[in-house]
Write a structure and sequence with these properties.
The complex is a heterodimer of chains A (about 290) and B (about 230).
Chain A: E1 3-14, E2 22-33, E3 37-41, H1 48-55, E4 63-68, E5 71-74, H2 83-88, E6 89-92, H3 105-115, H4 120-133, H5 150-162, E7 168-172, H6 180-196, E8 200-204, H7 208-214, E9 217-222, E10 225-230, H8 232-235, H9 239-244, H10 251-261, H11 275-288
Parallel strand pairs in A: 3-8, 3-9, 6-7, 7-8
Antiparallel strand pairs in A: 1-2, 1-4, 4-5, 9-10
Helix pairs in contact in A: 3-4, 3-5, 4-5
Chain B: H1 2-6, H2 10-27, H3 31-38, H4 42-55, E1 61-65, E2 68-71, H5 72-98, H6 101-112, H7 122-152, H8 162-193, H9 212-231
Antiparallel strand pairs in B: 1-2
Helix pairs in contact in B: 2-5, 2-9, 4-5, 6-7, 7-8
Classes of the chains: A alpha/beta (about 290), B mainly alpha (about 230).
Function (chain A): ATP-binding (A) component of a common energy-coupling factor (ECF) ABC-transporter complex.
Pfam families (chain A): ABC_tran
InterPro entries (chain A): AAA+_ATPase, ABC_transporter-like_ATP-bd, ABC_transporter-like_CS, ABC_transpr_CbiO/EcfA_su, ECF_ABC_transporter_ATP-bd, EcfA2, P-loop_NTPase
Chain lengths: ~290, ~230
Amino acid sequence: MDSAISFSKVTHTYQANTPFAHNALNNVTLQIPKQSFTAVIGHTGSGKSTLVQHINALLKPTTGHLEVLGKIIDAKTTNKNLKAFRKRVGMVFQFPEKQLFEETVLKDVMFGPKNYGASEESAKKAALDAMKLVGLDLSLSDHSPFDLSGGQMRRVAIAGVLAMSPEILILDEPTAGLDPRGHREIMDLAKYLNQNKQMTIILITHQMDDVVDYATNVIVMDKGEAVKVGPPEQTFADPTWIYQMQLDLPSSAEFAQQLKHAGVDISENHLPLTIDQLANRLVQLVGKGVVK
Amino acid sequence: MIIIFFANNLISYGVLSALIIIVILMSGISVAYFLKGIKPLIWLIIFTVLLQILFSSGGHVLWHFGPFSITNESLVNGGFIFMRFLLIIMISTVLTLTTTPLAIADGVQTVLKPLKKLHFPVDTLALMLSIALRFVPTLMDEMETIMNAQRARGVDFGSGSLKHRVRAAVPLLVPLFTGAINHAENLSTAMEARGFSDSEHRTKYRLYHWQTKDTISWIIFVLVGVAVILIRK
């Protein structure tokens, strides 16, 4: 498969050459396939955010280089001429509602496309399309973003990134602080963009259920290193290792583990990861008459 | 600091320099840090000293060109100004490197206490000061995040014409201010929920006790101060 992003031996040191120097990334080499839905997991401070900020060159490698959509980024890459590149890599930061600033919702969503040189008209069209995409009522266009609810503000911020129609979309904990419904809607939006708009999605999350429900590819970070890259089945194959990484199993796998402790092993060769898999296994077991 | 302005001859500056060198050595902080503290101010110092040397009159003229003249007295004055800058920066660096910001806020409160008699809201000021200090790093972090987020949306910070740069500051400043207002609202709600009414009649968690070493340092300070005033011409 084509890779949209490939890191080769990327190391990033914060405050290099000072007594406070601190390695946030250590010799990271990995590939992220085109049009994949990649989840980045790892405990707090493991280097997830540092990793993804390299992808649109907000941070540059201290040593090593990475290639994103054909562009090489290394220590010598300057901030000049990055505009056209950053348009192709959209990034939604944690609590993105904090970056809203315009007088109206529409203007804020148009801000990105206009920075990249779109005409007033095409920026407006892109903005309205993006608002529809994230499920914002178009009647909100003329409202001030500061009058909206937290969930709506989050959507405006995400629409602002989508309006630039990026090829890669990075989401840093996009559902933190949202209610269960808002959570599901945002995650479904990411899936829709991945499958229907052919976007490469990179998602940082602490929700293991989201990882197994949505992602096709998982990167596990620990102490600045990418310790495992592969499909979710592979990532969660070894529960002991997952706990060592200070991570959790998805709830279906957790349930299967507890059943196993109670004497009913339904894991066969690998743990059920999603609710559907879990339900299927249980149905099979009931069918065999093992469980009543 | 006031003592530094009293000094006006070689011996008095010598006494003060000796005192500050001893203080720096006792603080156990590497001298490199102090030199770093001077670095950003070095141009201001050089500029002022040069002005003093070139424009002051009086004394024996050594060299002159148009309105500029260098006299032996102006050289001495320039030297004194240089010393003053150096000593003031050194002693303030000692303060900021050895004392936590919260302790400084507490100190300000103690020093301002007499103003209470004049109905000056000392406690409120101290509270504002300690909250402000506590939020400096938080706001710095937020600024960094907002800058990155806007960069990802195509904003160029720090390049282009002045007009362009000022315009680029808007997407940074508006969210920063609204964020600060949100912080203020949340903080005041949280403070009220925890029983904060106003700054009168509060007890303190951090108590500072007067110790023998405080007395000793004050005695040394007063002695040096008196000595400098006596030595001065």
